[in-house]
Amino acid sequence: MPNLAFAHSFWDTYDRLEKQVKSGVRKAMQKFQQLSVAELHADKGLHLESVDNARDPRMRTIRITDFWRGVVLAPDDGSDVFLLLNVVPHDDAYGWAAKRLYTINSATRAVEVRNVVAIEELTPPLEQAASEAPTRLFAKYSDTVLRDLGIDDQVLRAARAITDEGQLEAFGGLLPEDQFEVLQFLTEGFTPEEVYRDLVVERRPAEDADDTGDSLARAIVNTRSRITLITNPDELTEILEKPFAAWRVFLHRSQRRVAYRVSYNGPAQVTGGPGTGKTVVALHRVKHLLSRSADTRVLLTTFTTALAKSLRENLALLLDDDDLLARVQVTTVDAYANRVVREISGRAQSPITDADERQIWRRIIRTQNLPWSEQFLVQEFRHVVLAQQVHSRKDYLLADRRGRGAPLQQAQRVRVWPAIEAFLAELSAAGTTTHLQICDRAAELLSTANEHRVGHVVVDEAQDLHPAQWRVLRAAVEPGPDDLFITGDPHQRIYDSHVSLRAVGISVAGRSSRLRVNYRSTAEILTWATGVIDGTPVEELSGDGTDSLTGYRSLLHGKWPIAEGYSSARDEAVAVSELVRTWIDQGVRSNEIAVCARFNLTLDKVQDQLRADGVPTERVKDQPRTEVEGVRLASMHAMKGLEFQCVAVVGVSEKVVPFAKEITPADVDRKQHEADLLKERCLLFVACTRARDALAVSWSGTPSPFVPERKVRRPSR
Ligand SMILES: Nc1ncnc2c1ncn2[C@@H]1O[C@H](COP(=O)(O)OP(=O)(O)OP(=O)(O)O)[C@@H](O)[C@H]1O
Questions:
Q1: Any bridge partners for residue 332, and if so which?
Q2: R_g of the chain computed on alpha carbons
Q3: Are residues 693 and 566 in the same domain?
Q4: Domain presence at residue 238
């Protein structure tokens, strides 16, 4: 019986195939497990046939349905592993298969694929253009150095013609994977010795180091980062049934480079737009850190309880080993701080809720007859007093209020400080505190309690963390190599926390990488959603300069999002329910559909309508288990970090997004006004980028000014 293996290019399309095509794939795959090689060739239904003019003579197609073909690499060296490469519509399959060539990398011994036709066509014009250029990107490396790193003749010729990084990136998708990665590493300033150590040695199987007799089967086993080999029938069923766990097995080049880098000489940061795999990278980094020593302990942490729950579930999927899992603490920063204080000081903490906090501020505004809003005082306390650890009137009068909008005159500060004191006195009288104060207490205690520290901290969704939360993370781990690994996206900052990481003792200079390819949403959804941000500059994650979405893209295609207005909220709820039912009729599971809104009240209306129409629903805040059926309903804030096949963002009307109450009037404070507007833009951006295949945005009355419909251009295919 032959063996079967799947290349990562297969999953890129498989996940999105319709049910009937998927079932065709499953049936075809079973034949590979049931028939001998001779029987496979003779099977009429499978129709295993060679491809005319294929550059790789091992290329074959198989019949999946009338309209779909599978593309397979058939061994011709006496080995027995068939490699499934792709599932492609009939008319495109032959073109796809004819241009690709699979080879074995001379250094890593892994299977790589290139678009050989495109490289041949593009190299001569590139050489022509380069003849005029003053420098070439790889001029300083000799042919021998490049060959030792696995670069072969064709790639060497192309590399010699490349003059800058932009050209390399543009060419990259055509080049064999490991070779492209070697070239990327070199352009990023790594020495050939470092590339050899971090990439070649890491991938090349030790036992094969001197073996030159490569067979396709052996190389497939060596290509664990891009190919999964099926060793028993149950595994086949499992892998085809659970396609979205593909991230466990395949990391894309840029992801693997950052997640499995042997070591960083201090804190490292990974940024990237929504869906670029930052969480996936954080999880794999944990796996890598655990593999380095048997007693490594890791704190994997994030912002909200829902995100921590999802990290915990996904880490269990990735590690699948209780002993490894026991060495990782997965929790929110606040819960971690709380636990540290409880364990070290022996006293349980009772933080107040946001609602209680606001109530106290309202009372203080009344009794002290203050001219500021409760929102202003909440922010002043959070972003100045707690952020900068201001403990006295004198310090407050001198405090730097950078990022807080209009300056406060001394006379005004003199009036604010008694309000702050009154607030702190109320907390103390009631025996309570705030989460952020607990963080500071934990940081203080950790600085003298080494035994409570962990070996490494990995932080996901870092963009909303407050300086006090950063301080506790800084204190949780001894400064040094691989102390902190931070992932986040400043375009998804929805709580207005602005931090200079350097100021809290975390410098990521020289250890910062960016992911640019979105693996979640279609290019159509991404283009539309990016229009919500409308090019507004956003502050970098580390607080140094601004961040942009330049180069951010998706390789997937689908339908253009639906953006639709209704005359009343009732009509909108009816239409949304109808759309949800259409998605379900098309085969989408109800738990893969989300409806989200700025307010819970809007969700109540849609929920009533869905129930009346017989559609099961679940509120995300109730934390239903992933497999429980029911359309998920969530506020925009609660959508952070989640994803669904289809998403309806409802109630996106003029008065709701941005929500007037959250926006400081421009005449009161222009800077804060702009910051508040950006926060609301980011919120809508987060909600829209949760959708994988379908996005619908709706409103009643006048649409939100952030709805970009008419301004953005559809991506070309
Ligand atoms: N290497 C991979 N192979 C398969 N799927 C992947 C891979 N990397 C990411 N994905 C998928 O892309 C989606 C987005 O990944 P992830 O949640 O890690 O992105 P993110 O950058 O953290 O997103 P966000 O910032 O929007 O929360 C997930 O469905 C994930 O499984």
A1: 302
A2: 28
A3: yes
A4: no
Handedness of CA 536, 541, 544, 550 (dihedral sign): negative
- Predicted complex ipTM: 0.98
From 250, 315, 520, 636, mutation site for ligand 1 pocket: most ligand atoms within 8 A of C-beta = 520
> Are both 590 and 675 inside the same structural domain?
yes
Ligand 1 centroid to residue 592 C-alpha, Å = 16
* In-domain check, residue 62: no
CB 423 within 8 A of CB 416: no
pLDDT, tens only, 336-385: 999 999 999 888 878 888 889 999 999 999 999 998 888 888 888 988 99
The rounded mean pLDDT for the chain is 89
**C-beta of residue 373 within 8 angstroms of C-beta of residue 361:** no
Can you give the pTM of this predicted structure? 0.77
Joined tokens for residue 15? 């996940």
Q: Is 277 annotated as a binding residue?
A: yes
Q: CB within 6 Å of ligand 1 — which residues? A: 244, 246-247, 250-252, 255, 272, 274-280, 489, 492, 519-520, 641, 643, 689
| Enclosing domain of residue 394 | 353-433
**Is a pLDDT exceeding 80 seen at residue 213?**
no
Is 275 one of the annotated binding-site residues?
A: yes
Which atom of ligand 1 lies nearest, measured to the CA of 643? 29
**Residue 220: inside a domain, yes or no?**
no
Which atom of ligand 1 is nearest the CA belonging to 246?
4
